[in-house]
Amino acid sequence: MTNTDFRIERDSMGDRQIPNNVYYGIQTQRAIENFPISGLKPLPTYINAGLYIKKATAIVNGELNCIPADISKAIIQATDEILAGKLRDQFVVDVYQAGAGTSHHMNINEVLTNRALELLGDEKGNYKRVSPNDHVNYGQSTNDVIPTAIRIGGLLALSQTLQPALDNAISTLEAKAVEFQDIVKSGRTHLQDAVPVRLGENFQAWAQILTEHQNRLYIAAGDLMVLGLGGSAAGTGMNTHPQYRQRVIEVLSQLLEIPLEPAPHLMAAMQSMGAFVNVSGAVRNLAQDLVKISHDLRLMDSGPKTGFKEIQLPPVQPGSSIMPGKYNPVMAEMTSMVCFQVMGYDNAIVLAAQAGQLELNVMMPLIAYNLIHSIEILGNTISALTNSCIQGITANKERCLDYAEGSLALVTALNTHIGYLNAAAVAKESLETGKSLRQIVLEKGLMTEEELANVLDLEQMSSIVPL
To answer: What residues form the membrane-spanning segments (predicted)?
Structure first.
């Protein structure tokens, strides 16, 4: 490299040559060297969360005359540019990094500093003019910024990805419930024949399940709106302006259009990861029911000749490299895989959350990635399953009705008319002889034909009793 290809930056540990074309600085460079672990970089939503915090703090610190007005303005402009899409490739620290997230935090501080320097007509690396620590990070610490960024990132991921996906899935399932309401099929418990149900009610049940999970997520998200920003290094608020804590939460609320509030005890907000465990648990809970729904779809579509084939999932790609004409329920299969990953991420979050000591939990980088990534991949999965699978499901009405009429579980409706033991004997004889339930009951004189027709009315049997 020539002298014009790099700049010399200095920190408390010494000097480093930094390529002149990058906007990160010496502490980010050290992190790149120290953590060549996974190749995973910070999630865009997590970066945005940090940028919103830096914009709010620059606004407030400028208003309170804690940093010069021109520097405040330059930092704000730099955050706006990056939020709009510039310099996104400058956030380069591996997900698995220094405890608490100091490396990622300094990566943000350095990029904003060097862009602010350019906007002020200065050269990158002139930290005497604009400092990553003394200006961009004024009144802040990794210890209060990172847990706040996880909260903001979680809220953004929920509102932008998961909640809209759930809204669409619920409305789609409800539309299918109406479409299939008149189709009678055999119910199944223990994977054995059970009493008849309506295909539409299967879809309405799934819509209700997702609605209940959506409500749980809304409640859990409330924990993320309580911020410990302003706690500084250990929750005492050291090196912050007396008005900073309240004002920065107000500005951040305005920027995000989210009703945020300061934590009642800043030290508690810094130490406990309970809010993240709570949200992750709600996401995991949703994932486990999505696995059940995806498995149900696969079973109901199984076949086409040797399975249930009560419904047809839309074929979206060839299903075999050797068997021509085969189509697999790939969207449902993908859904299960993502849900299993989400469950694994949740377990890692629980382990990381209990691993804090004294005034800080140093496992926050793992929690940040796992929580936000879980929310986003689950939201993307629900959207893909809804749009490429659920919307296009068709029903095999004749197949459904054949199974319903041939189910031995229809004998359940006879219990109150001929008694449980007589009904069990009828079912056993039907299975052994192949005779229908109707035929055996009439042969034994247990009921009249008119009584039997009324009791074994599939339409009536499969209707849900109203409250």
So the answer is: none
Check if the beta carbon of residue 374 is closer than 8 Å to that of residue 345.
Answer: yes
Nearest to 373 by CA among 83, 35, 95: 95
| Average pLDDT of the residues in 407-413 | 85
Helices (H), 158-243: 163-179, 199-221
Q: Is 259 exposed, middle or buried (0-12, 13-18, 19+ CB in 10 A)?
A: exposed
Q: Find the catalytic residue in 103, 131, 302, 320.
A: 320
Residues 153, 145: Cα–Cα separation, whole Å: 12
Could you tell me the two tokens for 70?
């021109």
Contact 297, 333 (CB under 8 A): no
Cβ contacts of 118 within 8 Å, gap of 6 or more: 124
Q: For the stretch 338-371, what's the b/e string if a residue is b when 16 or more beta carbons lie within 10 angstroms of its beta carbon? A: bbebbbebbebbbebbeebeeebbbbbbbbbbbb
Q: What is the pTM of this model?
A: 0.94
Given a contact cutoff of 8 angstroms between Cβ atoms, the answer to whether 26 and 99 are in contact is no
Residue 309 burial by Cβ neighbours in a 10 Å radius (0-12, 13-18, 19+): middle
Stretch 188-195: mean pLDDT, rounded?
Answer: 93
The answer to whether 336 touches 295, Cβ cutoff 8 Å, is yes
> Residue 119 and residue 49: Cα distance in Å, rounded?
22
Cα gap 260→407, rounded to integer Å: 56
Residues 6 or more apart from 9 whose CB is under 8 A from it? 15, 16, 18, 25, 26, 29, 125, 127
Q: List, for residues 308-342, the tens digit of each pLDDT value.
A: 999 999 999 998 888 888 899 999 999 999 999 99
Instruction: Indicate if 72 belongs to the active site.
Output: no
The pair phi, psi for residue 299, each rounded to 5°, is -65, -45
- Residues 6+ positions from 453 with CB-CB distance below 8 Å: none
> What residues pair up with 395 in beta bridges, in sequence order?
311
